[in-house]
Specification:
There is one protein chain. The protein contains 13 helices and no strands. Helix 4 packs parallel to helix 9. It is elongated and about 65 Å long.
Length: 272
């Protein structure tokens, strides 16, 4: 088994090391788990469609009432739905490296589990934001500050796409073998857990600001969830991913400016 050279260390290159059967098995497992999570999210979105879940819902829908455990369970399911397909090249690369060392597939399972655990823990940040804006009164729907805040969040999320932090974190996600060799050098389950957590941290740095959009349009807004899922999938796995990330960033900045200038835009993009 030959690990790709640095020039070939890409998400696509991760699938050139193991047999197509093993690659397919890893992808199928991750996609099936993602599909099950999407099914749960669609069901929950339907059940909560009359509940305020974003800034654009305040004063229009019933106030959202979610405990921290319920919110974090929803967030963890959402991250499994949106992130598991995108992490497939890294999982395949991890399996390739660990198999070469004589380790079994358990290490890769732990790697992915630790990756998701980081995303689940980070859910405390959007929960704090959600719990805060749910305290707003119905009069806020007729104020100028609400669309201005929504616009500022979109502008900040879009601007982040152009930062050096975004580029660094995205590069870590797009060089699977270099990442695995650097972060899972010792081998074994404990090392795989540390590597998965490290990858999760870089992934959070790459994508979490983008997910702030959901605080504006609604955490259970399926249209925006699918849009963000596609952006993340493409920017992490296509060679022109940074261009896609910056195009999405520019679009969010324009939308944020429009929202601050014309308050009705907030409610239009939120589907209310």
């Amino acid at each position: 088994m030959n690990v790709p050279l640095a020039a070939q260390d890409t998400p696509r290159g991760a699938f050139t090391v193991l047999s197509w059967r093993i690659n397919a098995a890893v992808v199928v497992v991750l996609v099936v788990l993602s599909a099950l999570a999407w099914r749960s999210m669609i069901r929950d979105a339907e059940a909560m469609r009359m509940m305020a879940m974003g800034l654009g819902h305040i004063g229009v829908l019933m106030p959202g009432v979610m405990s921290a455990p319920w919110f974090l369970a929803m967030w963890a399911t959402m991250m499994a739905a949106m992130m598991l397909p995108a992490v497939a090249p890294m999982a395949v690369a991890h399996l390739a490296v660990t198999r070469r060392r004589g380790d079994g597939p358990l290490a890769t399972v732990v790697f992915v589990a630790a990756y998701l655990a980081v995303w689940a823990t980070v859910g405390l940040v959007p929960f704090a934001a959600y719990a805060t804006f749910m305290q707003a009164s119905e009069e806020a729907a007729h104020s100028r500050w609400l669309p201005a805040l929504g616009g500022a969040i979109l502008i900040a999320a879009g601007a982040y796409q152009f930062t050096g932090w975004k580029s660094v974190c995205l590069d870590k996600c797009k060089s699977p073998f270099a990442f695995i060799v650097a972060h899972d050098f010792d081998g074994g389950v404990a090392s795989a857990a540390r590597a998965g957590a490290a990858h999760g941290a870089y992934c959070v740095g790459c994508c979490l600001p983008l997910f702030a959009v959901l605080l504006v349009v609604g955490l259970m807004n399926l249209f925006w969830m699918v849009a963000l899922f596609l952006i993340v999938l493409v920017e992490r796995n296509w060679k022109h991913g940074l261009t896609v990330a910056r195009a999405a960033g520019a679009a969010l900045i324009v939308l944020g400016i429009a929202m601050a200038a014309w308050p009705a835009v907030l409610f239009v993009v939120s589907g209310t």
